[in-house]
Amino acid sequence: xxxxxxxxxxxxxxxxxxxxxxxxxxxxxxxxxxxxxxxxxxxxxxxxxxxxxxxxxxxxxxxxxxxxxxxxxxxxxxxxxxxxxxxxxxxxxxxxxxxxxxxxxxxxxxxxxxxxxxxxxxxxxxxxxxxxxxxxxxxxxxxxxxxxxxxxxxxxxxxxxxxxxxxxxxxxxxxxxxxxxxxxxxxxxxxxxxxxxxxxxxxxxxxxxxxxxxxxxxxxxxxxxxxxxxxxxxxxxxxxxxxxxxx
Length: 247
Description:
GO terms for molecular function: copper ion binding; hydrolase activity; S-methyl-5-thioadenosine phosphorylase activity. Pfam families: Cu-oxidase_4. InterPro entries: Cu_polyphenol_OxRdtase, Cu_polyphenol_OxRdtase_sf, Cytotoxic_necrot_fac-like_cat. This is Purine nucleoside phosphorylase. By secondary structure, this protein is of the alpha+beta class. It has one domain (3-245): 4-Layer Sandwich (CNF1/YfiH-like putative cysteine hydrolases), CATH 3.60.140. Helices cover 20% and strands 23% of the residues. The chain has six helices and 13 strands. It has helices at 43-60, 129-133, 136-141, 167-170, 193-203, 225-230, and strands at residues 3-4, 14-19, 78-80, 94-97, 104-108, 112-117, 122-127, 151-154, 164-166, 180-182, 188-191, 208-211, 239-245. The protein has a six-stranded mixed sheet with strand order 3-4-7-6-8-12. A four-stranded antiparallel sheet has the order 1-2-13-5, with no helix packed on it. It is globular, with a radius of gyration of 17 Å.
């Protein structure tokens, strides 16, 4: 299995990484480490892939529990999983915990996988443009005691050069005009979601931010929804980014 890790640790007691397509059992459009049940891959293969992932985590932290996955629907809901179990029928796009040994997962195939920690709490956030506009970052950071103590890693996601959207969406990014660029297509613009995410975090008081350079659209070691659609295909798998407190 090949994983991508941030250049620095978010905290001494925190581990985080992003998966690539390598190391799983899925076939066809989902080859090979697809971690999502909702994309019409076989349940058996996805369950096996998640077990492979859990075993990988246990190889690093032997007492780690199975990872928690969200029912992501581009909401701005961030749920505390310390006080209640995550309801898989409830759509949420962020989870946080203060418990050690509990890995949190965020699945993506172009959107931003964002993991946060101050050493006491950890959080995992899924953010596309809807989440950024809807302030999911603010909703997450509100659950930490001090924004300036938080470190953030934004994992592999689509790059500005490949994220083209229409004028109706661009209108929502008025405050981030410096990260909007002309596109080749008429009535389209290119948007740098990673830089907008960074600016939003800075505005919220979080200054320790690391951005993965990998582009999920360009690098075929990642699943990419947009690349799949542009290739005339219907389905693809999902990468996942994980965060875990060891103590």
